[in-house]
Amino acid sequence: MSSKQGYLDFDEYIRQGEPDKQEKASIWKTAIGLQAVDGLKTSDYLIETARKHIEGEIDIDEARNLINNYYQSKAVREPDGECQEADKVSANITKILSTKTIDFSTKGYIALHRRIFDGVMKHAGQLRQYDITKKEWVLENDTVNYLNWEDLRRALDYDIEQERNFSYRGIGHDELIAHITKFVSGIWQIHAFGEGNTRTTAVFTIQYLRSIGFDVNNDMFARHSWYFRNSLVRANYKNAKMGIDYSPVYLERFFRNLLLGEQWDLRNRYLHIHPTEEWSKQPNLKETPTSTPTSTPTSSDYTNNKNIVRLVAAIGTEQRSVTELLKLVGLKDRKNFLDYSLNPSIAEGFVCRSYPESLHHPGQRYLLTEKGMKLYQKLLQK
Predict the structure, then answer these.
(1) Is residue 370 in some structural domain?
(2) Are residues 33 and 93 in the same domain?
(3) What is the rounded distance in angstroms from the CA atom of residue 265 to the CA atom of residue 54?
(4) Number of domains comprising the chain
(5) How far apart are CA 283 and CA 263, in angstroms?
(6) 29 near 54, Cβ under 8 Å?
(7) pLDDT per residue as tens digits for the range 352-364
(8) Do 58 and 147 sit in the same domain of this protein?
(9) CA–CA dist 380, 288 (Å, integer)
(10) 233: alpha, beta or left? (left if phi > 0; alpha if psi -120 to 50)
(11) Is 336 exposed, middle or buried (0-12, 13-18, 19+ CB in 10 A)?
């Protein structure tokens, strides 16, 4: 379980490691995965530092000091400057999530932003004093209407107090998910800070759900952080002229996967306000029929390439890492697997990446496209 060229198999630790290593690996994976919401990548040095912490060679404070000292040297700061924020924030989030405490208040939420971006942003822990807009790909460059800056603290006070007084006793799953979605969506829409709102909201959400008794699977935030952000965008966007209403359903599906173990296909293309026909219906993979395809198959939906067929069968309804897939198909040579199985499967449209915008993302997974799912259904029929 070593680091090589910026790669560390966190899943291997999570599956096979000791409990302490499993927890550390899960937290690091989440902290690193959350950097994708702002298009940031961590350095090889951060990955190696994470390995040392997971292995117990250093504690989290030593890990953070190593990262900070690394960037104090001008010689290394220049080539890796674009990684500095991702590295420092990942280490800060890891420290925060390593504890089980939360200050569930406006002051606590603001302090959380300060702790996450300590040493990165001069305005860490400061409410913005200006109004903002942000162009969003899923909105075709339109923006969510964020709260005006004069009312930020008042809005945080209100939302957090309302949630503090809410009772989850006796409510069903659907109402529970809808309520959590509304609370998290509302906190994010306030957009209290100039930068770092999604990462702060994600960490705050993990802490809060833990504090009220949920067993939170950090992996969801690690693997689907970009979907999490875009679903927040859709939950807070309305355009009457185009006939688009607030759409919290996408965020609800994230939480249904997180808390109820459902298997909604969490890919960003489903969230676009004008999706193509292929991406117009977001499937729950757990409910995908195994006998009747969702649409009439054509000859292009199938292949005679045995390597692709074997890979499709191995992936099934899951999302798999390269390491997992190598084991499932019984191969050891990573390069040959990429050249003759994985890359052809992607090129022919049967398999796609969970992070298509970040090919070398540490949380990268591979899953079936709609075309791949049709082939998988045909294999099940046999």
Answers:
(1) yes
(2) yes
(3) 30
(4) 3
(5) 8
(6) no
(7) 888 776 677 777 8
(8) no
(9) 12
(10) alpha
(11) exposed
Report the DSSP beta bridge partners of residue 352.
367
Task: Give this prediction's pTM.
Answer: 0.75
3 inside domain: no
Q: How many CB atoms lie within 10 A of CB 63?
A: 23
Crossing angle for the helix pair 322-329 and 306-315, nearest 10 degrees? 110
- What is the extent of the structural domain holding 313? 288-381
- On whether the CB atoms of residues 87 and 64 are closer than 8 A, the answer is no
Dist. CA 286–CA 53, nearest whole Å: 36
What is the CA angle 181-185-188, rounded to 5?
150
How far apart are the C-alpha atoms of 306 and 373, rounded to whole Å?
A: 16
Q: What's the CATH code of the domain at 308?
A: 1.10.10
Pick the last residue of a domain from 75, 97, 119: 97
Please report the pLDDT score of residue 5 as a whole number: 36
5 falls within a domain: no
Residue 280 domain-assigned?
no
Contact between 25 and 13 (Cβ < 8 Å): yes
If you search the block for the tokens 């208040």, which residue do you land on? 105
pLDDT in tens, 296-347: 444 456 788 889 999 999 999 888 889 889 999 888 888 889 888 998 899 8
